[in-house]
Amino acid sequence: MKKWLFVLLIGVVTLIVNAQTLVIKGSNTVYPIAQLWVEEFQKIHPNVVVTLEGAGSTTGIKALFNETTDIANASRFLKPSEIEEMQKAGGYFVPILIAYDALSAIVHPSLPLEDISIETLKKIYTGEITEWNQVDPKLPKRPIVVYSRNTASGTFETWVEKVLGGAKLSPRVQMLESSQAEIESVAKNPNAIAYTGMGYVTSQVKALKVNGVAASVENVINGTYPISRPLFVFIDLKRFNFSWPTEGVVADYIRFILSPKGQKIVREAGYVPAYGTGE
């Protein structure tokens, strides 16, 4: 018995010593894709222990600065302030395009509204419009309950840029910690509106057309959907002596997510692949 316990202990110690780690932090939008990537990646590399967090793009980029992550998922590009900070820190954050997304304006399925303009969305989120009958006289005279992602979110940054045009958000807007929280809140409230990445949209909510264009894969590819955006992962080349990593767990992971298999997973997660899927 003692002999078997000793052998088992040696085996466990060997696994721990040989295990590699990969830490991924950042975008809540990219999180569902990354979950599927990690699941498949670990089938190929069972000795790699992966930690995945999805608290927001800003959180991931801060983790690159703090050197507490290997990879930062982001639903936006670097801000000018982050580029300046990176240069002062001697870093070299490289963006890797991994997918495209359509930011979807969502409401409760029972609301008799199918289409909304960017201008109307701006008026709702800045507080100029506060009731549904101001959007359309045929809609009920009920207060609009407005939800947004919090300020750590790259989705929030994109919404402020592309919908609000930099205008200030109304204090009536309720900030939520995750895209899933937005889906659940809208699903429970027939007077609510929110926005989310296309991969999060379910039958619990209704995605509105924006300026008459549906948030579909086809309309992202042909460039007609007005609130589409690229999605990225970032790595810091300073960790690799300012050269592109060609070996090691980070290199293996990047090769996988950009492969036809990895890009097929992007599509399975409900987003638009950036590269070919081999089909």
TrEMBL record:
One Pfam assignment: PBP_like_2
Domain of life: Bacteria
Residue ranges crossing the lipid bilayer per the database entry: none
SUPFAM superfamilies linked to this entry: Periplasmic binding protein-like II
Keyword Signal on entry: yes
GO biological process: phosphate ion transport
Keyword Transport: yes
Keyword terms: Phosphate transport, Signal, Transport
PBP domain boundaries: 20-260
An example Gene Ontology molecular-function term: phosphate ion binding
Function field: Involved in the system for phosphate transport across the cytoplasmic membrane.
Family per similarity comment: Belongs to the PstS family.
Entry protein name: Phosphate-binding protein
Organism field: Pseudothermotoga hypogea DSM 11164 = NBRC 106472
